[in-house]
Design brief:
Elements: H1 11-19, H2 21-24, E1 32-33, E2 45-47, E3 51-57, E4 64-70, H3 77-87, E5 99-108, E6 117-125, H4 132-142, H5 145-164, E7 177-179, E8 185-187, H6 227-242, H7 244-247, H8 260-264, H9 270-276, H10 281-294, H11 304-313, H12 334-343, H13 347-363, H14 387-440, H15 444-451, H16 460-481, E9 493-496, E10 508-511, E11 515-518, E12 526-530, E13 535-545, E14 548-552, E15 566-574, E16 577-582, E17 585-591, E18 606-608, E19 617-624, E20 630-633, E21 639-640
Antiparallel strand pairs: 1-3, 2-3, 3-4, 4-6, 5-6, 7-8, 9-13, 10-13, 10-21, 11-12, 13-19, 14-15, 14-18, 15-16, 16-17, 19-20
Helix pairs in contact: 5-6, 5-11, 6-10, 6-11, 12-13, 13-14, 14-15, 14-16, 15-16
């Protein structure tokens, strides 16, 4: 295969080979192509970017397969697919198709050449059904809001499950999602997928521009690359469920509601403004979050998990009637128009009507009495004026109109800001109440998730209460894992919830340099990187330490110590204080003098085989990032704010 790396074939070359699959395929030579129609030699095929997907059948079992053949031969494709397959080994998900990669499977003779190329193929389960983009267009024509709402909920569930599996699809878009016969969402096209084993490599593809972050680069290859398209799809589905008639008339295979130019300048985007103006709390909040993400260099979307969870629980949108055909309203007189406009509470339009009335009277008929227009509207009676007074009147009227318009504009802006602030405050308070309710019920993990969006709020009272809640939840969660007694001393003792050193302090930390973020306290999988100068919340931690054996030198009735009893020194707490194991029990706040008596009569309480060494302790910290991501760090010295004495 390496000799063919960089070679390319055409779709026609692939079609010619698939027609003779029994001779051109190697291990899969039992597959036969499904033909477009009876008597035709053309196989059923879907062109997909730099590949072609053929519909194949196993004649002995009748099972259908999708055979993906690539137009370009890349040297690293086999390695990528192998690592992707390893990541999902022994996993079954309804939205993930079974696949197998074959590196030198299909023999292809390019047109005009005699030498054969051995090309790779990807064999997958054939999923029958239209793409999400196609079916959304069909549903929007009927205005079926209930089905659209159900799709938004299904997407929220699927996206949350994807995030929990520590990978990224890499090219999320409507055309890479199949809607099965049971209306389930199924992902296809895994060429751009990221798994932790591929960390450090460049992305194979940047995905569809109408769904991807505008600043995404080939080197941006991590679990964060799916955040942006996840939110784009969620917003699109929610918006279509709210108003399928006006928003669903312009869908195509390349985009739903957004285009790349909208992401490049969201403040000037009509669709951004239209969605923000919708009377839907989730849609407004999510669209603003998307607009903020467009301007950020960070591909991770803050609070994406919370936004997806709220999308699932968002209420079904109010029924929307299909708008009637537009009719041209009958003309009316200027005075009647002004009266109706003022009655609707639209002062800017009313001012315009007043100006139109005055100008019509001053510049139009200069005679006394009244005149009737061709439409039958009665013109106002205005006495003939000299040019000087007429111009003065026009100027005063224009100033009056501009002043009234400005007043109306700023009044409306103030009302909008007050309404938004009130709504946000109410939502934040409700979420804080939910945090406290979960904490009281000892649902510590749910508390961390529910409180995550609030710990970085600008409102000091909400921020402080949320931080206290997450710290308590994390501490109590680890406390439930802390054993009260240990019959035997383990080779490595894990002190859950520990914060070693007299100045150790959990809370708001700031990174001094980039630090890897792990999925667990073993450091097996990197799930992200905490950037330099990034602020995080250190929630709690645990110490891993190898116990040091010692013996009792001074008896104590209070602690039931007898001379010669075996003890083990555990976690260092600071100021010479350690946790201790003795006779199957764990005790704290014991001084260890390392048998260095002070004065002629002083005696050591314990004698240990080794002196204390900081290198024996490994401290793992649980942190929460501003995007809501929770993970573990080991290099705690890379952060400031961890020591109250620094």
């Amino acid at each position: 295969m390496s000799g063919n790396a960089g070679a390319a074939v055409t779709i026609t070359d692939l079609v010619n080979s698939i027609r003779h699959s029994n001779r051109r395929l190697d291990k899969l030579n039992y597959l036969r192509p499904i033909l477009q129609q009876s008597g035709s030699s053309d196989p059923v095929m879907v062109s997909a970017g730099f590949s072609a997907v053929f519909k194949m059948r196993n004649p002995s079992t009748g099972r259908l397969s999708a055979l993906k053949c690539f137009l370009q031969i890349k040297a690293d494709r086999q390695e990528r697919y192998q690592k992707i397959a390893d990541h999902f080994r022994n996993q079954k998900h309804s939205w993930l198709l079974d696949f197998s990669y074959f590196d030198t499977e299909l023999s292809v003779t390019p047109r005009g050449q005699t030498a054969e190329l051995l090309c790779p193929v990807l064999s997958m389960t054939w999923e029958e059904g239209p793409t999400l983009g196609v079916i959304l267009g069909q549903i929007c024509q009927t205005g079926d809001q209930r089905t659209l709402h159900a799709f938004s909920q299904k997407w929220a569930v699927l996206a949350q499950e994807m995030m929990s599996l520590n990978f990224a699809h890499g090219d999320l878009k409507a055309d890479n999602i199949i809607v099965s016969s049971a209306d389930n969402l199924v992902l296809v096209d895994y060429d751009s997928m990221f798994v932790p084993a591929l960390a450090g490599q460049n992305a194979a593809d940047l995905g569809g521009p109408s769904f991807q972050h505008p600043r995404r680069r080939p080197m941006d290859f991590s679990v964060d690359i799916d955040h942006f398209p996840m939110l784009v799809l969620g917003i699109s589905l929610r918006a279509l469920a709210i108003d399928p008639y006006s928003l669903g008339h312009n869908l195509d295979s390349d985009h739903l509601l957004f285009r790349q130019k909208d992401f490049q300048n969201p403040d000037q985007s009509a669709i951004f403004q239209k969605l923000i103006a919708q009377n839907d709390t989730w849609l407004t909040t999510a669209t603003r979050a998307l607009a903020a993400s467009c301007k950020s260099k960070n591909l991770a979307v803050p609070y994406i998990e919370q936004l997806l969870a709220l999308l699932y629980s968002a209420p079904a949108p109010a029924a929307k009637k299909q708008p009637p055909p537009k009719q041209t309203p009958p003309p009316a007189g200027a005075r009647a128009t002004a009266a109706r406009t003022f009655a609707r509470g639209q002062p800017t339009q009313f001012a315009g009507s007043v100006l139109n009335t005055l100008l019509t009277g001053m510049i139009g008929s200069a005679s006394t009495g009244s005149s009737q227009t061709a439409h039958g509207a009665i013109q106002p009676v205005v006495l003939q004026q000299r040019p000087f007074f007429r111009n003065l009147t026009i100027t005063i009227t224009a100033i009056f109109t501009v002043a009234l318009g400005l007043y109306a504009f700023y009044a409306q802006q103030r009302r909008d800001l007050l309404t938004a602030a009130t709504t946000v405050a109410r939502i934040n308070m409700n979420e804080l109440n939910t945090c406290h309710t979960l904490l009281a019920a000892k649902e510590y993990r749910k508390t961390l998730i529910a409180c995550a969006p609030l710990v970085w709020m600008t409102d000091e009272s909400i921020r402080s209460a949320a931080r206290q809640a997450v710290h308590t939840a994390a501490t109590d969660l680890f406390e439930t894992q802390r054993p009260k007694n240990l019959a035997n001393v383990p080779q490595v003792y894990i002190d859950h919830g520990a914060c070693p050193g007299e100045g150790c302090l959990y809370g708001e930390w700031k990174s001094k340099k980039a630090t890897p973020l792990y999925s667990d306290n073993l450091g097996q999988s990197v799930v992200g990187t905490v950037g330099e100068n990034e602020q995080v919340m250190a929630l709690t931690g645990e110490v891993h330490i190898k116990p040091v054996k010692g013996r009792v030198l001074v008896a104590s009735d209070k602690y039931n110590f007898k001379i010669g009893d075996v003890v083990y020194r555990l976690t260092y707490q600071g100021e010479g204080i350690f946790n201790l194991w003795h006779n199957g029990k764990l005790s704290s706040h014991f001084h260890s003098d390392d048998c260095k008596p002070i004065g002629p009569n002083a005696r050591c309480r314990f004698e240990f085989e080794e002196k204390f060494d900081w290198a024996r302790m490994i401290l793992w910290i649980v942190i929460m990032r501003q995007n809501g991501q929770i993970g573990w760090i080991k290099d705690y010295k890379n952060f400031s704010g961890r020591d109250r004495f620094e």
